[in-house]
Amino acid sequence: MRRLPQNIFVTGIGTGVGKTIASAVLTEALQADYWKPIQCGNLEDSDTKTVQSLISNSSSKIYPEAYRLKTAASPHYAASAENLEIELKECKLPTTNNRLVIEGAGGIMVPLNQNELILDLIIKLKAPVVLVVRNYLGAINHTLLSIDALGQNGVELLGVVFSGEDFLDNEQIIQHFGKVKVLGRIDEAKNIDKEFIKQQSVKLKTYLSQHFTI
């Protein structure tokens, strides 16, 4: 069985699908380090701070963002609002001997500047992808398009994580047409705290161990 890669890029089929919670669960499950290269909006309660507040293990190290932008918008627009331009060369992988969970911003086709997308950042970092999928009208289409775009650009997709309420027909269709591994399911919850993340991390680790040596 293949060993789980050192660096893992967590992206989603869109905004608000549960990437940050999935990143926290994955970080806890692997006792990995965590890094979000680009944060847009809500700097007082950023995704980095959220993950830091939700993990329980003492092994994970949290790395600062390369870009912290105030505007809650697409990275290219948020940077432009501050008279900045996001440059991929500034998004340098942290140096660590631990596994690293990297959280993206929005989906893979989100623009970073006038020439590059989140997809280009993934390619630059050479990190295989975990794709977070949430059920909503259009989710199948968005998932299959994301899978196709990753494949056409030579990006390795480790598998998908389903987030939120079960909708098994969607999951089965995505597996059938996307020919993709299911790496886990994260439950819907009103109260997301350390205990919830810990419980979900145990489940996720069980799923992962079916496909990879951890």
Description of the structure:
The mean pLDDT is 96. 41% of the residues are buried. The chain is 36% helix and 20% strand. Helix 1 packs across helix 2. It is of the alpha/beta class. The protein has one domain: Rossmann fold (3-Layer(aba) Sandwich).
The CATH class:
Alpha Beta
CATH topology: Rossmann fold
- The CATH superfamily label reads P-loop containing nucleotide triphosphate hydrolases
The helix/strand class is alpha/beta
Q: What is the average per-residue confidence, as pLDDT, rounded to a whole number?
A: 96
- Give the CATH architecture: 3-Layer(aba) Sandwich
Q: What is the 3D shape?
A: globular
Strand content: 15-25%
The count of strands amounts to 9
Radius of gyration: 16 Å
Distance between the termini: 10 Å
- Roughly how much helix do the residues carry, as a percent range? 25-40%
Characterize the largest beta sheet: strand count, sense, and whether it forms a barrel.
7 strands, parallel
Report the uncertain regions: none
Question: What's the number of structural domains?
Answer: 1
H/E order of the elements?
A: EHEEHEEHEHEHEHEH
Q: How many DSSP helices? A: 7
Give the neighbour order of strands across the main sheet.
Answer: 4-2-6-1-7-8-9
